[in-house]
Specification:
Radius of gyration: 19 Å
Largest sheet: 5 strands, antiparallel
Oligomer: single chain
Helix content: under 10%
Strand content: over 45%
Order of helices and strands: HEEEEEEEEEEEEEEEEEEEEEEEEEEEEE
Distance between the termini: 37 Å
Number of strands: 29
Number of helices: 1
Shape: globular
């Protein structure tokens, strides 16, 4: 009944908003990068030979970085003649940077489904990848020089609000790593989900519970939720609210809380959440896999479905363009 109700709502709802989005779609055959601006969707980057995924806007919204590969689905071996790259383009689709990853360089490959993390100055970003030995790595990609620097191992990059450090999960342990000097701070078991807006604490999933873990006093961690398993958690741009998606069997739901962790609303999605981002301080855009189709919907903090936006079909979910 829940799935049927949602389908009917998607047929009835319409509308748009002022916030622009970048996302991926397979509507042209391969996974390509699209932008939705002023209610109109158009391809920003597309290719018959490459699959583009994980687009991420720069802090000022002038650039979009993404991963590109000629990797063939179903083939698991590494080949030197495949294309593995990160690229950056402006909002007119003009290339502003390219980082090729040949068969050397320890065979570092982009990992689909992991968001690229721009540093606040917009001159570099962090990216998640893996090697031929199945090791997860984090590297920093510099826009001006097109060079890369290894920063650490693990998965699930979470850049701190001031851009000075990032949290990562390795072997069911959470670590915070300084970008400047590599100083590593262990925070105990779990999976890092998100920083608080002031950068003083991390929200961590542990045993299907949600913990608030202060960076300077790990022993003072407190349980603030028990709705896991958690898929993704993101704070609103103004820091007043946060939302997270959870897995419920083959379906999922999204929950909203204020900064004091008070419950605001929720919405049963009737399908699998494939990624989301805040449009503003009051609603999110979410990619939903429903009956083998991918759609972007919007939901407000009270848990009300507001619009059906577009079809997608790629990795990474929608991302807000500042």
């Amino acid at each position: 009944m829940m799935r049927r109700t949602l389908v009917l709502l998607l047929v009835l709802l319409g509308g748009a908003w002022a916030q622009d989005l970048v996302f991926t779609s397979e509507r042209l055959g391969t996974s390509d990068v699209f932008v939705r601006r002023d209610g109109v969707t158009f391809p920003l980057v597309f290719s018959d030979d490459l699959a583009e995924f994980d687009p991420s806007p720069s802090p000022d919204g002038s650039l979009v970085a993404y991963a590109a590969t000629s990797f063939v689905v179903g083939v698991t071996s590494f080949e030197d003649d495949w294309t593995w790259e990160y690229r950056a383009v402006d909002l007119e689709g003009r290339e502003r940077g390219r980082w090729s990853l040949p068969g050397g360089d320890n065979n570092f490959r982009p990992a689909g489904g992991f968001e690229l993390a721009w540093l606040p100055d917009g001159r570099s970003f962090l990216a998640q990848g893996y090697t031929e030995d199945a090791d997860w790595e984090v590297r920093r990609f510099f826009l001006d020089t097109e060079r890369t620097v290894y920063l650490g191992s693990g998965f699930g990059i979470l850049l701190s609000p001031d851009g000075s450090a990032f949290a990562i999960t390795r072997n069911d342990q959470v670590f915070v790593i300084s970008i400047a000097d590599g100083l590593t701070l262990p925070l105990g078991r779990g999976r890092a989900l998100g920083w608080t807006p002031d950068g003083a604490a991390l929200l961590v999933e542990r045993n299907f519970g949600l913990l608030l873990v202060p960076i300077e006093d790990v022993a003072a961690a407190e349980v603030i939720g028990d709705s896991g398993p958690y898929l993704e958690l993101r704070w609103s741009p103004d820091g007043r609210h946060y939302a997270y998606t959870i897995l419920i069997g083959a379906d999922s739901a999204i929950f909203f809380h204020d900064g004091a962790h008070n419950f605001l609303g929720s919405f049963d999605l009737g399908g699998l959440a494939a990624g989301f981002d805040w449009l503003d301080g009051e609603q999110v855009a979410l990619e939903l896999v429903l009956d083998e189709e991918r759609r972007i919907i919007t939901v407000d903090v009270e848990g009300t479905l507001t619009t059906l936006v577009d079809g997608t079909g790629g990795d990474g979910g929608p991302r807000r363009i500042p």
